[in-house]
Design goal:
With 393 residues, this protein is of the alpha/beta class. It has two domains: 270 residues, Aspartate Aminotransferase, domain 2; 102 residues, Aspartate Aminotransferase, domain 1. The chain contains twelve helices and twelve strands. β5 and β6 form a beta hairpin. The radius of gyration is 22 Å and the shape is globular. The protein binds 4'-deoxy-4'-aminopyridoxal-5'-phosphate (PMP). 4'-deoxy-4'-aminopyridoxal-5'-phosphate (PMP) binds next to α3. InterPro entries: Aminotrans_V_dom, Aminotrans_V_PyrdxlP_BS, Pser_aminoTfrase, PyrdxlP-dep_Trfase, PyrdxlP-dep_Trfase_major, PyrdxlP-dep_Trfase_small. One of its GO terms (cellular component) is cytoplasm. GO terms for molecular function: O-phospho-L-serine:2-oxoglutarate aminotransferase activity; pyridoxal phosphate binding. Keywords: Amino-acid biosynthesis, Aminotransferase, Pyridoxal phosphate, Serine biosynthesis, Transferase.
Length: 393
């Protein structure tokens, strides 16, 4: 057992205590079979049930339509950056018989890294915009209005359009899918939801691929969830290695070749089944809580509480992100007087409010308020933020 943590770290992140207690038990003796869940074959009936349950529960939580498949691959979001680039370019080739560039909407360091990986792999790719270029401070912290960049997409051919729904380091989140990417049959929308999956309702039918590393909202590090349109899998399968060679597109390594993984129900090679079981326990926990709509209401309440505490002391705190794209998961702020930084951290930690130090590339502070953070923990942080400003102004 443990005291309920108040850990605001960006990830790996705090998980529901109830989930961890069940997982700990199942690690030793799963369903009274006399073995732990990590000690049995990934093709046993128990393991297959864990895979099927996780898929079923995620399908329920996100209303995933029949047009889409779900699968899991070892490795984090970074494995997603490379596997998306090669699989999706291959799919475009399978669909059209030609190649086209991938388009990246860059709003922070994770979408930037995804773009760099596509380029490194010699996947033809383009930046549609980099929000640093149009930002008043020349930093990540805004999303340019769609009218400024939609012409770069409309009427042009792209193998896919990629963006990161929530930039974990910079605290920049897309509120909604840009209009020019909605209901577009000829554009495959690909999104990184590593740090905001299951935090709010989305319309999965609009996405070609959703990718999310597990270690923030849904579990332990080690697995990445993919939700993919079945037609994309079909188009990848049509392409031969010779054809890829002819077009200069890298062949996807077998362990991340999406159709192979799906054909084998995510057990083509040894899936870390304990990690997946923890993820399924998180899914079940969320279903019991009332699903994504209930979680979304909680997240709105938590983020509103923190931002309003910070906004109430504008001379003391600096919020680098524009209001229309403030993240509801990662609240980034700095002190106007950085000499107080270490005092802020020390006093927070004396109140058992931990994990608040900002990313090394941004500095300042970041409060990550993923699904598992209680409203009470966030209210405690909001109160500390206000008290600290009042005492030190
Ligand atoms: N995408 C996002 C949005 C992230 O926050 C992270 C890291 N936390 C990654 C990708 C990379 O994930 P990993 O370290 O698991 O490769």
């Amino acid at each position: 057992d443990r005291e309920e943590p108040q850990h605001f770290g960006a990830g790996p992140a705090q998980l529901p205590t109830k989930v961890l207690q069940q997982a700990a038990k199942d690690l030793v003796n799963f369903n009274e079979i006399g073995l732990g869940i990590g000690e049995i074959s990934h093709r046993s009936k128990e393991a297959t049930k864990v895979i099927d349950d996780a898929k079923l529960h995620l399908r329920q939580l996100m209303n995933i339509p029949d047009t889409h498949d779900i699968f899991f691959i070892q490795g984090g979001g970074t494995t997603g950056f490379s596997s998306i680039a090669t699989n999706l370019e291959t799919a475009y080739l399978g669909k059209t018989g030609e190649i086209a560039p991938a388009g990246y909407l860059v709003t922070g360091s994770w979408s930037q890294k995804a773009f760099e990986e596509a380029e490194r792999l010699h996947i033809p790719s383009k930046i549609i915009f980099n929000s640093k270029d149009s930002d008043k401070n020349g930093k990540y912290g805004s999303i340019p209005d769609e009218s400024l960049w939609e012409d770069k997409i409309k009427g042009h051919k792209f193998s896919y359009i990629y963006f990161c729904e929530n930039e974990t380091v910079h605290g920049v989140e897309w509120n909604s899918l840009p209009e020019c990417l909605q209901n577009q049959d000829d554009i495959e929308v690909v999104a990184d939801l590593s740090s905001d999956i299951l935090s709010r309702e989305i319309d999965v039918s609009q996405y070609g691929v959703i990718m999310a590393g597990a270690q923030k909202n849904i579990g332990l590090a080690g697995l990445t969830v993919y939700i993919i349109k079945k037609s994309i899998l079909h188009n990848i399968s049509k392409v031969s290695d010779d054809q890829l060679f002819e077009f200069g597109i890298p062949i996807t390594p077998i362990a991340t070749h999406y159709p192979t993984i799906v054909k084998n129900n995510s057990a083509y090679n040894t899936i870390p089944i304990f990690t997946l079981h923890v993820m399924d326990l998180v899914f079940q926990h969320l279903l019991e809580k009332g699903g994504v709509p209930a979680q979304q209401r909680e997240n709105e309440q938590k983020s509103a509480s923190l931002y309003s505490a910070l906004d109430s002391h504008p001379d003391f705190y600096n919020l680098p992100v524009d209001k229309n794209c403030r993240s509801k998961m990662n609240v980034v702020f700095t002190l106007k007087n950085p000499e107080l930084d270490s005092k802020f951290l020390e006093e927070a930690s004396a109140l058992k409010l931990t994990g608040l130090k900002g990313h090394r590339s941004v500095g300042g502070f970041r409060a990550s308020i993923y699904n598992a953070l209680s409203i009470e923990a966030v209210e405690n942080l909001s109160k500390f933020i206000k008290d600290f400003a009042e005492k030190n102004a």
